[in-house]
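Hey, I was hoping to borrow your eyes for a little while. I've dropped the whole record in just underneath, so have a look:

——
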Amino acid sequence: LIVGTHRLLSKDIQPAKLGLLIVDEEHRFGVTHKEKIKKLRAEVDVLTLTATPIPRTLQMSLLGIRDLSIISTPPRRRQSVKTFLARHDDLVIKEAIQQEMARGGQLFFVHNRVKSIHMVAENIERLVPHARIAIAHGQMPGRNLEDIMVSFINHEIDILVCTTIIESGLDIPNANTIIINRADHLGLADIYQLRGRVGRSSRQSYAYLLVPSLDRLTPDADKRLRALLDCSELGGGFKLAMNDLQIRGGGNLLGVSQSGHIAAVGYDLYLELLQSTVADLKARAAGGHDLLQPELDPEVKLKVAAFLPDDFVRDTAERYRLYRRISTAGNDNPEMLHDLQDELVDRFGPLPSEAETLFTMIGLKYPLRKLGISKLEQGPAHIVFTFVENSPVDPGMLLELINKARPRKRKGQSKPTDDPIRLTPDHRLLVAITDQDNLFDKIYTVIESLTTDT
């Protein structure tokens, strides 16, 4: 067993029989290290551990490229960290310090600028003259830094003014308040790791995120900080990583970018292409078959309210996952979609009308694909079914459907009425609909008429 830093990835270190590589704090490894690890994957099992996976790693797990396991059960009697977002104010800082020191606790004050860290420490000393204060940062000599940390652990120091050097590897049960200055300049994973330095005991802990102004935050910074406030419960790292994925994008899974959106083809299309390819490669590896041909994915455009309301599924990341699952289930057999619908009822209660409509609309995809219908649209007066060129639908059945719907000509009627159902030369079936008709009943009537003997 060899335990070490990323130095173990150097060329001059070649273990004789390496069978397992465990990477802790995976989010702290750069692209160069990841590429070296990737070269080992063909021969070595790799287990990566992290509280907040980077967007690319998380996206690879969601797509099935990597296996994913989540440990969401906290230690016994552990409480979540109460997190506050506030404008930088001496009164806020003073009250937070006095509250923690009144119960005999210690504090971290994170200021990630070495040049001005002494000024910050002097200001804190002015606010609470009776507090014992020390400074710690990565540019200090190792021996001095070690002495300060030992003193802090032994409670000889009340407030440690420090940089992000403390974000991992510290477990000090008596330190239960952290104040992070200029939190808008830090990433989600950084703040999450810093917040994890407190709350290491059964005592209630607090995290204060200070920014110059609440009204002048950049859009991304505002999203990051709001996500941290929403994900303050224990074991919320995965949920927070999902928010990070939505804010920053999934990166280039085949290149070196660990975050960022795919501009060339669009992010959603990129994910669909990649997910399809992964599924095909797995099927070929399992059965030894050639790559599968891409299946038809019918496009459904109806003028209905079909979505999961915010008050039904309150968690944003969970709604994102459910939308992906619903979309995937719609392209599979109907039983999967019904099972997922039952799961939502069991977890969140009776479906609101918008959610029921969503399941009904997605449920159309399976029968439409079987009929070779690439698109279903709702126009002002018609429902339009667009067929692919090699549709399996019997042309005779189409003609029978059209003739049955055609009204009989009455005596004395000079001008013929428009056919309720007609077929255009560009493979589109137009079905007339009125305000009195039930949209989905009309659609399913057409589908059933075409699938009787298909």
Q: What stands out?
A: The two ends are 62 Å apart (CA to CA). The longest strand covers residues 81-87. The chain has four domains: 6-49, 81-234, 295-367, 371-450.
